[in-house]
């Protein structure tokens, strides 16, 4: 079992104008730096931010990134007219951390363009500031990052594609390990936004038949496989699919039937805690890959494991975007999409193979094996580069 460790830093902040609460948790530093997004939602708590910061450490460690994990959170309604002002004051208040060792990005309730606007107004340039200032050539690094973030793949921005590609590669590696043949393997994807949609696209291209696409309205089911590209073209900005685009053989099922659709692979890519102790017995799949954050509760996961159904944890399956961003910062890949896809495929398949090997040997659950793998990698990076001192610069 992984030993529990205290976070490097916990910070509480109170906005003087609205009394909104804000939190920063740096789970650990590696080479003097940590990464993790900043979210804003009514009801956000320090405990939530601490859990997410820990998850970021697991995520970076799993993909062999020499970076620690962190997270920021603000307990405030992001749709409130005062939300921007709250975010501005939060960034200014925690600027010493952002200056020195916390690299942040968009998260729930805070889009990236807004975050970069606020950073620029605060004199920090952009949310990647702490990484850029460590670079031997900040201008060259910034140019590389901007080129990479401007790339699109078939008309879709790279950040919206790389995460789903990583989930599909995790599924592919796990399916192979479990002896599932791509042409005979079926999948259901719950959630058809950027993550779920790109996951479905790359599952289909990898030969896995997507028989169910789930949005807020219900399940679109086709035993022969839905036309993923047709449905992607018919979805709204919120991931809802226009039913007038349904093709031959497609039929609609009630949303509550999404767990019981017959398929070997289930990908929850929408909301947290979607699979819990009350509904996990309905799962028909042989494998679950968590594309959303914490879509399977701990007690549900235990019951699934007792039935022989492994769960690829979120900090492995949905780590693609984080890996891509940091590989770009370090100069490990070029802005060309194929560079990112190839590296992510190698790292994802390696990690999934290792955690399932441990599970099959009976030593750990997939989640615990993934945590052990991540901690080992980060501990080795900390030994090489130090915890708090930055010995590896961004190139």
Task: Identify the notable features of this structure and list them briefly.
alpha/beta; Rossmann fold; 2 domains; seven-stranded mixed β-sheet; six-stranded mixed β-sheet; 42% helix; globular; disordered C terminus
Describe the structure.
Strand 14 (287-289), helix 10 and strand 15 (311-312) form a beta-alpha-beta unit. By secondary structure, the protein is of the alpha/beta class. It folds into two domains: 9-150, Leucine Dehydrogenase, chain A, domain 1 (Rossmann fold, 3-Layer(aba) Sandwich); 157-369, NAD(P)-binding Rossmann-like Domain (Rossmann fold), CATH 3.40.50.720. The chain has helices at residues 46-62, 83-93, 95-100, 112-121, 129-132, 138-150, 158-177, 194-205, 228-233, 298-306, 314-317, 320-330, 337-360, 366-385, and strands at residues 9-14, 21-26, 34-35, 38-40, 68-75, 102-103, 152-153, 156-157, 186-190, 209-215, 218-221, 251-253, 265-268, 287-289, 311-312. Helix 1 crosses helix 14, helix 7 crosses helix 12 and helix 7 packs parallel to helix 13 (337-360). It contains 14 helices and 15 strands. A seven-stranded mixed sheet has the order 12-11-10-9-13-14-15. Strands 1, 2, 3, 4, 5 and 6 form a six-stranded mixed sheet that branches. The protein has a two-stranded antiparallel sheet with strand order 7-8.
């Amino acid at each position: 079992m992984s030993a529990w460790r205290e976070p490097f830093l916990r910070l509480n902040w109170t906005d003087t104008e609205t009394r909104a609460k804000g939190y920063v948790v740096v789970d650990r530093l590696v080479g003097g730096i940590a990464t993790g997004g900043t979210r804003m939602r009514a009801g956000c708590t320090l405990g939530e931010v601490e859990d997410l910061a820990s998850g970021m450490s697991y995520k970076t460690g799993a993909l062999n990134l020499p970076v620690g994990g962190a997270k920021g959170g603000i307990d405030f309604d992001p749709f409130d007219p005062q939300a921007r002002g709250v975010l501005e004051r939060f960034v200014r208040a925690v600027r010493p951390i952002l200056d020195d060792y916390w690299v942040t990005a968009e998260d729930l309730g805070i889009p990236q363009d807004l975050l970069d606007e606020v950073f620029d107004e605060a004199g920090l340039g952009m949310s990647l500031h702490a990484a850029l200032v460590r670079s031997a050539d900040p201008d060259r690094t910034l140019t590389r990052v901007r080129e990479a973030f401007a790339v699109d793949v078939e008309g879709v921005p790279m950040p919206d594609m790389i995460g789903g590609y990583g989930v599909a590669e995790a599924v592919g590696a796990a399916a192979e390990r479990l002896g599932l043949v791509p042409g005979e393997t079926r999948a259901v994807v719950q959630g058809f936004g950027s993550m779920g949609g790109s996951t479905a696209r790359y599952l289909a291209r990898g030969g896995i038949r997507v028989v169910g696409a789930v949005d807020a309205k219900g399940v679109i089911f086709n035993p022969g496989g839905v036309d993923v590209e047709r449905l992607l073209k018919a979805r709204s900005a919120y991931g809802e699919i226009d039913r007038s685009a349904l093709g031959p053989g497609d039929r609609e099922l009630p949303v509550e039937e999404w767990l019981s659709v017959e398929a070997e692979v289930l990908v929850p890519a929408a909301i947290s805690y979607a699979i819990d102790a009350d509904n996990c017995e309905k799962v028909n799949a042989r494998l679950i890959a968590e594309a959303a954050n914490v879509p399977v509760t701990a007690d549900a996961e235990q019951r699934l494991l007792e039935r022989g159904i492994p769960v690829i944890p979120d900090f492995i399956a949905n780590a693609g975007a984080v890996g891509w961003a940091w590989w770009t910062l370090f100069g490990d890949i070029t802005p060309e999409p194929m560079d990112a896809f190839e590296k992510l495929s190698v790292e994802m398949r390696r990690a999934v193979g290792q955690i399932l090997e441990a599970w099959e040997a009976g030593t750990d659950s997939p989640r615990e094996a993934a945590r052990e793998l991540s901690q080992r990698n980060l501990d080795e990076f900390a030994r090489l580069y130090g915890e708090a001192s930055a010995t590896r610069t961004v190139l």
